[in-house]
Each structure stands twice: as C-alpha cells, then as structure tokens.
Predict the 3D structure of the following.
Amino acid sequence: ALLWDVGAGAGSVAVEWARTHPTCRAVAVERDAERAERIVRNTRTLGVPEVQVVTGAAPQALADLDAPDAVFVGGGATVDGVLDACWGALRPGGRLVVHGVTLETEQLLVAWHTEHGGELVRLLVETAAPLGSFTSWTPARAVTQWSVVKEGRA
C-alpha cells in the first residue's frame, strides 16, 4: 500500500509505514528543504531509504504522485487545496488522517467531518513536572485528529 505523508516534518509517519512491511511504500512531502534533508537522513538511518522524499509545497507537490491508499496530513491542512487534493487522489477504500493543533485547523476538520463523516478525536498528553515542592501535570498542545475511510472498494 502507498502512503502520502503530507507536511512530513521529520518523516516519522512515512518511516514507520515503510517499516511495517516490505510491500509498504511511502512518499514524504515537505515544503521546507532543511526538513526534507532531515527526512532523507532519517530514512537511511532507520533502514527505509526507499521512502520517496518530495521537496515542495502541497497541493502542487502532490500533482504527479501515484494515487495513495492512505494519506496522513501532519501539517498544512489549512493551505487552500491541500485537503481537496488529498481526498481527490485517495483511492476508494483508502484512509485519510489529518492532525491539527490550531483552532483554524480544528474548524476545518469539523467541517470536513460534517461533510464526509469519519472519526473526530482530540488527543491530549500531560507530563508530570515539578511545581514547587510538589508534582503537577503540564499539558502539551492538544491534537485534533480526523480519520475517515473513503467510500468505495479498495
């Protein structure tokens, strides 16, 4: 199966996808050249140099890629056309997962959830840290996750 990791950052989703099974393929799309170079280093270090790294901004950078079986959008969901391009290219039966940490992205995900269904989840992680002579929970940014399977046969 082919995964697009859009707004790939360090490429961790693409790397883990490719490590799952020898037939799993991944394309990591990252607009920032320095981050894209980091993804290349990570794929080599973690034993999946076959992960394709595309340096460019979505949605333009997605135009000539093979149709994906799954798409993960880790960054850039609010850029005009990104979700439309991902959804349009996704094969029937494929899964789209989008993460967002801003209110703007969350609003967009609520709208897409309303239109396409799926599951909308907010994830929050807290870490124990000192507070004076006591210990308290320090929250990290909440992540809103939308996951949906495109109707049709795979």
In short: The chain has a mean pLDDT of 96.
